[in-house]
């Protein structure tokens, strides 16, 4: 079983990875991971720069929103993370980013269709847009949990991206693939439009990823 200190350290590493890849800026975005054998999550604190974030800054919170360990206030988007974990027992990590092309789709309120094979393998299909609500609210949390609809990524209207997975690494990959697909979608639209993959093929690829390819990465 992975130690709590290791999970906290991995979240710090993910934060710096997101910053280095340009998926977040400043103190925006947030990261969480479900602890292995309990109804607890580890989540980034509110308003802390990823450059100076330390493992001990990561806050431990129960699924009913009670802080059980940590000296800082958890992310203001805690309700969003909790709503996803409550709705999806298969999700072990949630990453929220503000990448440029995906955010362009979010502000246009345009879902990213299933047009790229690596995207659909990880996310399970189109990346849909959750209805707008103010950040940090329960309304936003409920809208996001609904829009996820069994998949591993979504867009928050006028806000950014949510990527999920069975590990922190997979959640980050989901965010990277959403950004890549958003850029391709925007460019393809300028060329006359993107051709969408067949739904049956999407499901075949996603099932293969979950049952086979994901296991090879562990």
From TrEMBL:
Residues 9-186 form the Class II aldolase/adducin N-terminal domain. Keywords: Lyase, Metal-binding. One of its GO terms (molecular function) is metal ion binding. This is Class II aldolase/adducin family protein. It comes from the Bacteria. It holds the Pfam family Aldolase_II. GO terms for cellular component: cytosol. It comes from Thermosinus carboxydivorans Nor1. GO terms for biological process: pentose catabolic process. Transmembrane segments: none annotated.
